[in-house]
């Protein structure tokens, strides 16, 4: 077995998981309880298992200000996206929260994590949005998220006390950083290139991964599918994960060169800053390289097409290498999917755009392999019927009635979930 020796960000993989025992129930019963929304619940899980190493909890004012101004933690480590827990001033007063308190964060009406309160503070949300997103335009989804934060932020270390159960079909693909590092070592993968995805893969995505595999001389490609907040029109989570895994199952990637995993994360669409964040998280997963194509983590026209490429020019060595790629398209002259850096028929190119792929899926046409694999389309249609209430795209019915990605065991149950993190 090969030891995957790539250090996590900060040098130590954070693990703050301490499942409650019977004797703990009386102790936590005295803690103030705060129900948390989906985003915060996912971030508690990510902090506790080390996806966000070196963070051990929600950011305090010094870290938040340093991240906003200079894209570093107070310790000096590069960090680009705020990870904060917001409460209203009224909630803080009602709970009587103060530094040194312990509070129980609950989710789905069950205990989730204990937060050790360090500081309660305010921060200029308009300044924060401008620094992180480069705009204060509320049409930007990240800015909108920032402006909906409550008046106060509460910082402190987080300990997961009731590990969630990951529901099918995601349970086959979700691994903690420690578990995933072990899987990579068992596969003898010393060089691993990560592919960030929140879409069903078309031919351009497939060749993006293959090109990055060649460029990085990797042993394998790790698809890290983002599973998080959904809005109408997005692909349903199940279709994203299962179609990516299908590329391996159907032999478009040889067995032993491709692995699908999931990351529970609510996209900020912060463009270049989020590209840096994605690289750091995949470093914590054990990856040595991360591929970045056009418009990575962008939205609308807020960022230049290759802004996520240029940001790495001004950063120190992050311990994970960026594989920067141009666009892949279909060229009718070449008769194949080809690369912008090689093909000389720009005027004849046919973009493999998301709108084209959606039109194929919605129109019932059989696609050419140069656009979308027929096998992928078959899985998309199966997911629509099995998980999407008839549609592979998010609709209100899906938002209201889908099986959640994670569910909380009750304290009375013997927690046998797959995400103990201590195995």
Structure description:
- There is one protein chain.
- The protein has 423 residues and is α/β, with parallel strands linked by helices.
- It folds into 2 domains: 22-163, Sulfate adenylyltransferase, CATH 3.10.400; 170-401, HUPs (Rossmann fold), CATH 3.40.50.
- Helices cover 31% and strands 18% of the residues.
- It has helices at 25-29, 38-49, 61-70, 89-95, 125-133, 141-147, 177-186, 203-216, 237-249, 272-284, 307-310, 354-363, 374-386, 396-401; strands spanning 33-35, 57-58, 86-87, 102-107, 110-121, 152-160, 165-166, 192-197, 220-227, 258-264, 289-292, 321-324, 328-331, 336-339, 406-407.
- Strands 1, 2, 3, 4, 5 and 6 form a 6-stranded mixed sheet that branches.
- The radius of gyration is 22 Å and the shape is globular.
Keywords:
423 residues, disordered C terminus, 6-stranded mixed sheet, alpha/beta, Rossmann fold, Sulfate adenylyltransferase, 5-stranded parallel sheet
What's the layout of helices and strands?
Elements: H1 25-29, E1 33-35, H2 38-49, E2 57-58, H3 61-70, E3 86-87, H4 89-95, E4 102-107, E5 110-121, H5 125-133, H6 141-147, E6 152-160, E7 165-166, H7 177-186, E8 192-197, H8 203-216, E9 220-227, H9 237-249, E10 258-264, H10 272-284, E11 289-292, H11 307-310, E12 321-324, E13 328-331, E14 336-339, H12 354-363, H13 374-386, H14 396-401, E15 406-407
Parallel strand pairs: 1-4, 8-9, 8-11, 9-10, 11-12
Antiparallel strand pairs: 2-6, 3-6, 4-5, 5-6, 7-15, 13-14
Helix pairs in contact: 3-5, 5-6, 9-13
């Amino acid at each position: 077995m090969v030891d995957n020796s790539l250090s996590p960000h900060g040098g130590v993989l954070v693990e703050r998981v301490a499942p409650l025992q019977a004797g703990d129930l009386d102790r936590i019963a005295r803690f103030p309880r705060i129900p948390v929304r989906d985003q915060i619940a996912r971030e508690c899980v990510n902090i506790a298992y080390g996806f966000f190493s070196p963070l051990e909890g929600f950011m305090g004012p010094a870290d938040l200000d340093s991240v906003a101004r200079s894209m570093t933690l107070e310790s000096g480590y590069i960090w680009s996206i705020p990870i904060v827990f917001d409460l209203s001033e009224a909630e803080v007063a009602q709970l009587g929260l103060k530094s040194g308190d312990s509070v129980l964060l609950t989710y789905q009406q069950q205990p989730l994590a204990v937060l050790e309160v360090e500081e309660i503070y305010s921060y200029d949300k308009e300044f924060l949005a401008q620094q992180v997103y480069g705009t204060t335009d509320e049409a930007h989804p990240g800015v909108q998220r920032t402006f909906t934060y409550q008046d106060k932020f509460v910082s402190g270390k987080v300990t997961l006390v009731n590990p969630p159960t990951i529901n099918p079909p995601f349970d086959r693909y979700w691994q903690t950083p420690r578990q995933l590092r072990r899987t990579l070592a068992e596969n003898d993968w010393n060089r691993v290139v990560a592919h960030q995805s929140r879409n069903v893969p078309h031919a351009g995505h497939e060749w993006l991964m293959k090109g990055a595999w060649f460029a990085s001389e990797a042993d394998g490609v790790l698809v890290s599918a983002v599973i998080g907040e959904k809005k109408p029109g997005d692909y349903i989570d199940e279709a994203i994960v299962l179609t990516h895994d299908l590329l391996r199952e159907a032999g478009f990637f040889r067995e032993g060169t491709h692995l699908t995993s999931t990351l529970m994360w609510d996209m900020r669409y912060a463009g270049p800053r989020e590209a840096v964040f994605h690289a750091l998280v995949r470093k914590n997963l054990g990856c040595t390289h991360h591929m970045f194509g056009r418009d990575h983590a962008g939205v609308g026209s807020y960022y230049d097409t290759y802004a996520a490429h240029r940001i790495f020019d001004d950063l120190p060595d992050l311990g994970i290498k960026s594989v920067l790629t141009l666009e892949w398209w279909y060229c009718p002259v070449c008769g194949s999917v080809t690369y912008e850096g090689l093909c000389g028929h720009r005027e004849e190119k046919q973009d493999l755009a998301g709108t084209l792929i959606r039109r194929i899926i919605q129109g019932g046409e059989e696609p050419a392999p140069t656009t979308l694999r027929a096998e992928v389309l078959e899985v998309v249609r199966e997911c629509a019927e099995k998980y999407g209430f008839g549609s592979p795209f998010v609709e209100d019915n899906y938002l209201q009635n889908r099986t959640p990605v994670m569910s909380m065991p009750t304290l009375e149950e013997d927690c046998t979930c797959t995400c103990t993190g201590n195995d």
